[in-house]
Amino acid sequence: MRFISLCILLLASATHGEKPNIVLIVADDLGYGDLGCYGQKFIQTPSLDKMAGEGLRFTRFYAGSALCLPARCTLMTGLHTGHGRCRDNGGGGNHPPIHEEDITLSTVMRAAGYKTAMIGKWALGDHFIGCKVESKNQDGPGAIYKHGWDYYFGEPNQTYNHRYYMDQMYQYDRYGLVGKKTDGQRLDVIAYPNNRKERTEYSHDLLTEKALAFIDAAKAGPFFLYVPFTIPHADLDVPEVEPYAKEKDWSEGAKAYASMITRMDRDIARITERLKTHGIEKKTLVIFTSDHGSNAQFGQFRSNGEYAGRKGQLSEGGLRVPCIAWWPGNIKPDTMTDELSAFWDFMPTFSALAGIAPPQPIDGLSLAPTLTGEGEQQHHKYLYFSLRGKDMIIRSESETSTDDEIRKKANTKVVVTKFASQP
Prior knowledge:
This protein is α/β, with parallel strands linked by helices. About 25% of the residues lie in helices and about 15% in strands. The strands form 3 sheets. A 10-stranded mixed beta sheet has the order 7-6-5-4-8-1-9-10-2-11. The two termini are about 20 Å apart.
């Protein structure tokens, strides 16, 4: 992009010449109104509220889609759903994968010298060597080990993440950073025998522990840690419903939903505290967001805030999500921005901070100037979303093109990105 080099130069003083660590945490099905700092009155989220008070809160930030898989594809590739590879969920445990030639954010960050880790829900490739499902135990194009990750822990298939007590999860450790080095290009099974029945290992808790372990291992930096949590999606299942057990007027589902969010909030505090323990919080940008709007139907929560619609719908309620950026000493505390932005902006933003040019062409713009207050922020003229034969256009105040002109430009066949620095 034309202004990438300028952004890199401007950021040099803010980061003291060092590449910042980056932690990106993405909730699953969390709505714009589910956090206290975005207006929630019932669900307790003190840690995220504190992060917002110490950092930057986006008020016009959008997920990549109203469904899980296409949203995650936009995040990983920097392409909106009119251009991207994966445009729908699939279903039944079978999902359209990204291809080997698709350049991912993790590939870019690794090329920039970062240790890279993903802990949680991948969704972009169900087939991989090591899969316990026999029909999927093959080397697929979206396999995690083909897309720039040094470490992975979780369940790649988004359908199987509907459950929170699994009999097995998977690990990939290219260098033996956290545990045993993976033997070749495959995922290793981590078994939890009889866990569905005995309910001893809650998957969200396992993800949190692995995230902390990776920070411990990679603290010398620079590292890129992507934590796509699975809370509060699908099965409303949580080990305990404190502090909501005594809410007599709440349904059991509402208690579980709120408890899952509060549990995640507590664990995000553990992540930021671990950064402080290692003295690297000022070297680390932490961003929290959600993969799309909520599907929850608990009226008292108003999970999508004032916005109509929900998950699965091209609507403000289905697409607008919270986004909090925390970077002590670099982001001005207790600030807000109404910059029109979306998932596909992560690719150029993180590339700029890492000092590397992103692949081209992409649809995103670097938000580095907005994060640091340094340099000139480019602005989107519009955001484009496509899902199941329908589309939605969110315009900036200055955009004058007609809807048909935008559709013609934005809804085209797949674009395969080019990346000069690909290792």
